[in-house]
Amino acid sequence: MKKGLLLLLLIFSNSSWSQTYEEKIAASKAFIGKPVQEHTFYTLDKQPITFQNLKGEAVVAYFFASWCSPCYEALENLNKAIETTPPTVHVVAISLDEDWASLERMLERTGYTGEVWKSADAELAFQERLFANFTSSLPHIIRIDAQGILIEGGSRVKSFDQWTALINQNASISKASGI
C-alpha cells in the first residue's frame, strides 16, 4: 500500500508527467509573446552564454542535433544563406547534442561556419518544450525580437531560399516556410 501511494505521489508531483499532450502544447505555445526562457548554452570554446547576451538584437536561432537527419541539409543551406548575403538578424545555430564530439562531427560534415552554441541541458529543453517547441522535435527555429521577446517558433524552414527570406528579408517563419 505504501509503495502504491509513493508511486502515485511521484507521478503527480511532476507536473510535466501529469499534463496531457494538449496541455503541454498549450503551455509551450504560451511562450510566444513573452521574454525568451532562461537557459544556459556554451559557445564552441565552452564559455557559458544565454539569449540575454544578445538583448538589443533581433535573433533567429536554429535548434539542431547530430541525430536529426533533416538537420544536416537545413544547416548546410543556412550556412550558404549566411555566406551569400550577410544576415539582417543575429543568427545562432544551437546544438541539442549531449556530447561535444557529435556536434563537432556534424559541423565538419555540413561545413557550417556560423555562430554555434551547445545546450547545457538538451533533455530539459525537450521535456519542458522550451522555446515554443510544442512538438518537442527537431529541427526547430525561433525568432526573438530586440527586446528579448520570443515572437515565433516553427520547424519548416530548410531550403536556401527559405533561409534567405528568414534571415535577410525579415520574413516570418511561417511565410518563409511557404517559399
From TrEMBL:
Signal peptide start and end residues: 1-18
Entry annotated with the keyword Repressor: no
UniProt cross-references to CDD domains, sorted A to Z: TlpA_like_family (cd02966)
Keywords: Signal
Thioredoxin domain mapped to chain residues: 30-172
A matching Pfam family: Redoxin
SUPFAM superfamilies associated with the record: Thioredoxin-like
InterPro entries named in the record: Redoxin, Thioredoxin-like_sf, Thioredoxin_domain, Thioredoxin_ResA/DsbE_sf
Record GO terms (molecular function): oxidoreductase activity
Protein name: Thioredoxin-like protein
Organism annotation: Alteromonas macleodii
